[in-house]
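Human:
Class, as today's exercise, you are to examine the entry below, and be ready to discuss the fold:
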Amino acid sequence: MLRMRRCVFAWVILSMAGCASTQTPSTVDTQQPALSRPDSGQYFVFFYRPGPAWVEGKSVKQQPIALHALYMDKLKRRGILKVGGPLKDDAGAFGILECEDLDTAERLIQEDPAIRNRIMVGEVHPWFPAVAGCVEKRGW
């Protein structure tokens, strides 16, 4: 489980930086209406790890995840993605979402092009920021 989480962390950080890919950014749906910012302040952590379509022997930067990076950027612009990115040891990637409920968080992850294209697999868990101000007051 720890190895999977490490893989997820590394993948998300690098992918958010706009990693090289064979995918074309023009196919990302940027016209979809933005989700409203939740008033409830519910947070969800997601973990990614390599999926069945992951190209073995290639680094995160060499995976076809450009559409994923654009998707994550869209969630960031909407105020949904609070933080995310790959682990430095390439063991995985993670992120924190703020949205209405677990169903919405799971849907957002399943709509990620990297998940849809099976390059990555993901899981979502409800999360409670036990230390006040660690997420909600950062101005993300």
Confidence is low (pLDDT under 50) at residues 4-39.
